[in-house]
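PROTEIN DESIGN WORKSHEET
SECTION A - STRUCTURE
LENGTH: 257
TOKENS:
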């Protein structure tokens, strides 16, 4: 007599999840194909009302933006100019999200045609030292497009990134790797992976304006702020060059479209 082991509830649930469509990944890929067919001007115009809606529907983020831009502009948070700049920031973030999704439908050579690079001689000089480069990247423009461009033109790039939910993470990592980027997930193993990449004389891209880990107290626009110390600390520890980088559309620097 053959006795089969009873199926546990956990195993059954796991198999059921594996049969379900990978909705997040599928949505990401479908969105990429749709955006590819939309001209850049229309794509960015459509992003504006979405960003404005986000501004009005996110009271906590709206208040933070108003406070920050008031400090930067030297005005009160209730000033109409402060509100105008804050709304523009939300709209620009919406455009960045569209570019983030769009990359999923582009081939490396197509992305290279959309982006120009300034300051390449400084990057090449830093890599010539042989100790790697830490690229400090702020939340400005499409940092994913900048990293993908660097990988597509042959630079060895490792991007330190947080994990996306569910199947979306696999789809995004697959896209980044297609452009030549190595993805280092935040976590216990990240420091070792970063150190190994720098020893191999690679570029390690780090977002430099998140309060993660110990930071340095500074006065920023007359206010107390914490600046992450990770990029500078790693550069001092490893001897790697430390360079800032940013991406912006139709401007100097790393720019696209």
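SECTION B - SEQUENCE
RESIDUE ASSIGNMENT:
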């Amino acid at each position: 007599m053959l006795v089969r082991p009873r199926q546990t509830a956990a195993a059954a649930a796991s198999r059921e999840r594996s049969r379900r469509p990978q909705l997040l990944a599928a949505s990401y890929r479908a969105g990429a194909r749709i955006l590819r067919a939309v001209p850049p001007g229309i794509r960015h115009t459509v992003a504006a009302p979405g960003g404005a809606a986000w501004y009005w529907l996110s009271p906590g983020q709206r208040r933070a933006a108003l406070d920050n831009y008031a400090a930067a502009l030297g005005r009160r948070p209730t000033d109409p100019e402060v509100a105008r700049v804050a709304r523009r920031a939300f709209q620009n973030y919406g455009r960045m999200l569209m570019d983030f999704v769009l990359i999923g439908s582009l081939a490396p050579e197509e992305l290279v045609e959309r982006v120009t690079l300034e300051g390449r001689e400084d990057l090449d000089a830093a890599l010539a030292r042989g100790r790697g480069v830490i690229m400090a990247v702020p939340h400005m423009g499409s940092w994913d497009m900048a990293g993908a461009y660097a990988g597509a033109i042959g630079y060895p790039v490792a991007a330190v990134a947080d994990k996306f939910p569910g199947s979306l993470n696999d789809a995004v990592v697959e896209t980044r790797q297609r452009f030549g980027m190595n993805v280092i997930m935040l976590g216990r193993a990240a420091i070792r992976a970063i150190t190994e990449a720098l020893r191999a004389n690679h570029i390690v891209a780090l977002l430099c304006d998140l309060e993660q880990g110990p930071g340095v107290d500074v006065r920023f626009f007359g206010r107390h702020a914490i600046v992450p110390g990770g990029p500078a600390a790693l550069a001092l520890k490893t001897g790697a060059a430390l360079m800032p980088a940013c991406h912006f559309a139709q401007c100097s620097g790393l720019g696209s479209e």
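SECTION C - NOTES
Residues 108-256 form one domain.
Residues 114 and 257 are 5 Å apart (CA to CA).
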